[in-house]
Amino acid sequence: MFETLTLEEILTGRKALMDGWGGRPGIIITRAKGAKLWDSEGKEYIDCTSQAFSLNIGANHPRVIEAVREQLEKATHIAYHLDSFPLLTLTRKLTQLAPGDLNRVNFCLEGSLASESAMKLAIKNRPGCKYFIVFEHGYHGRNLPTMAVSWTDPRPSFSYFKENVIKVPEAYCYRCKFNLSYPSCNLECARFLEETIEKNKKEGIIAVMMEPVQGNGGQISFPPEFHQKVREICDRHNVLLIWDEVQTGFGRVGKMFAAELYKVVPDILVFGKAVAGGFPLAGIVVRDKLKPFDAGENAFTFAHFPLSLAAACVTIDVLREEKLLERCERLNQEIITYLRNLQEKYEIIGDVRGPGLAIGIELVKDRDTKEPAVKEANELVKMSLERGVMFGISKYAGLGNVVKIKPPLVITDEEVEKVLSVFKECVEKIQKRV
Ligand SMILES: Cc1ncc(COP(=O)(O)O)c(C=O)c1O
Q1: Which atom belonging to ligand 1 lies closest to the Cα atom of 216?
Q2: Strand, helix or coil at 296?
Q3: C-beta 247 within 6 A of ligand 1
Q4: Is 308 a residue whose pLDDT tops 80?
Q5: Which atom of ligand 1 is closest in space to residue 244's alpha carbon?
Q6: Which of 101, 91, 38, 60 is nearest to 318 (CA)?
């Protein structure tokens, strides 16, 4: 099945597809392994997007395939209210891994729904309160409530639930909203967050909801101290702290969770993407002092999906046994050093940032004005693709100027070498045209 399609079948299939993303390069992927993808023409790509940042242990990891195959023979779908061995194994594993005292898990299949689950549980635990406070470049998904708490598309189509959301500037030090510099700024953005909480105390703040490293909005990482300050502020004002670790979880930042990297325990942690080695799974892990969901409040038809649960159990083992977290940290140092050297040579590279393999390179037309080089970033991604390297880009539909290097943690040293040399070649060409 699916060995090939005629041109007509391809074209009619494409025509019938309603795309909600924007900017499809027209590549048909037929095979994937580790950090590599192959298209229907046989062309090979090194994947620095980990397929929407989900393949931390690489594509088609043999242990995942084996676990899923074994489960396929037993049961492919089990209703929400029944138990299964994969379900109970994973809840136990996740609560052992999760930071601090987070020890209750609720599953679903998509990160957006998991973020919404976190919002629902927070609302339940702060009855009568009105606002979520979120950061300007944060991203939490694409269902209606999570669109309301995500970065603002300049062409907004949906504006539901926004009356319950307050947005504040994050510690985006490269483009500080307060025109200050870290560390002499004394984290004015954190002070502003506290002031916002105080000003809206009467109507009540449900939670501060944030990504520990912002992905979609611009691959923005914050000074570690910012994280600790936000936690202190939330504690001081009895506001819940939700960390959306859908992108940062399961090794992406060189630790199992960013919570470990930044030494912060949120009240609710949202996970998704890489948890199940390429199978769909997401959810929340929460402090058990929070009031849990009651009957009927958060259960979904496929939330107990045994294939994904089995895949997740072995994904966690693989991350540890193959020492992928350590590998991720080492590759971070090598890649960042290489890119910072390039930055000295090429004016278009405004900023290089990020922990682990969550690396962002912000392109600018001019170092002084920092005018975003959006067209150039899109061009770089396109040129690299022609050369067999798939980079990510911040913001969908070609709206961003941050190129992302976020490959599977199993990427080989030779593959990293090729990625960096393609990046350099393309930057060089684009720099000449700016
Ligand atoms: C931080 C974060 N939260 C939530 C989501 C939504 O996840 P999904 O696309 O699985 O619904 C994403 C997806 O990119 C994300 O990066």
Answers
A1: 16
A2: coil
A3: yes
A4: yes
A5: 1
A6: 60
